[in-house]
Amino acid sequence: MIAIIDYDAGNIKSVEKALLALGEEPVVTRDKDTILAADKVILPGVGSFGDAMGRLRQYGLVEVIHQVVEQGTPFLGICLGLQLMFERSDESDGVEGLGILKGEILKIPDCEGLKIPHMGWNSLAIRPGTRLFAGVEQGAYVYFVHSYYLKAADPQIVAATAEYSTHIHAAVECGNVFACQFHPEKSSDVGLQILKNFISL
């Protein structure tokens, strides 16, 4: 069973629909026991870092997420879900992230001719041998919507990067923890392959 963590963040429905299209029957829930019993757990989300951390705390989900990771369950963060897994964000000064991985979320710098938020298709430079990108071609295009980007403390965990005004750590992979800044559920066949790879871990 795949649990999608429900903390009133946007984008949960489209992740659920993508998983249904792959023949899965995901459960959208904030019930602690259901999440802890799941074979795989996904933390999606769009919106503000500070608001999202506030809701995760309000629903008692911070501790649950840490337990999921500690017990070795494959865990996938998507978009804001990726950002929350790190220590802090420029978007919400003084708000601590989940701190599952080391690194920070920085504002995409202004760059002449580029719009922020970064919205649309962008190609990935994929690190060879990653489990999340098995069967995905180098330079594959995926769909992004974000104004802030990840700078991971440890380059070894970076599974894919993208260029847009700056060097963006677009996906990470560390043990049972995976995350994408882009939206696999909106990234056509490439995105479905990434979700399929996660499901089959």
| Gyration radius from CA atoms, angstroms | 15 Å
Count, helices: 6
CATH architecture grouping: 3-Layer(aba) Sandwich
- Strand order of the main beta sheet, please? 2-1-3-4-13-12-11-8
Number of domains: 1
| Class based on secondary structure composition and strand pairing | alpha/beta
**What is the CATH superfamily label?**
Class I glutamine amidotransferase (GATase) domain
The CATH class designation is: Alpha Beta
Kindly report how far apart the N and C termini lie: 13 Å
Descriptive report:
This protein is an alpha/beta fold. It has one domain: Rossmann fold (3-Layer(aba) Sandwich), CATH 3.40.50.880. It contains six helices and 13 strands. Strands 2-1-3-4-13-12-11-8 form an eight-stranded mixed beta sheet. It has a three-stranded mixed beta sheet with strand order 5-6-10. It is globular, with a radius of gyration of 15 Å. The two termini are 13 Å apart. The mean pLDDT is 97.
Short summary:
The chain is an alpha/beta fold and 201 residues long.
What is the secondary structure topology, with strand pairs?
Blueprint: E1 2-5, H1 12-21, E2 27-29, H2 32-37, E3 40-43, H3 49-58, H4 61-70, E4 75-78, H5 80-84, E5 88-89, E6 103-107, E7 118-123, E8 125-126, E9 141-146, E10 148-152, E11 158-163, E12 167-174, E13 177-180, H6 188-199
Parallel strand pairs: 1-2, 1-3, 3-4, 4-13, 5-6
Antiparallel strand pairs: 6-10, 7-9, 8-11, 11-12, 12-13
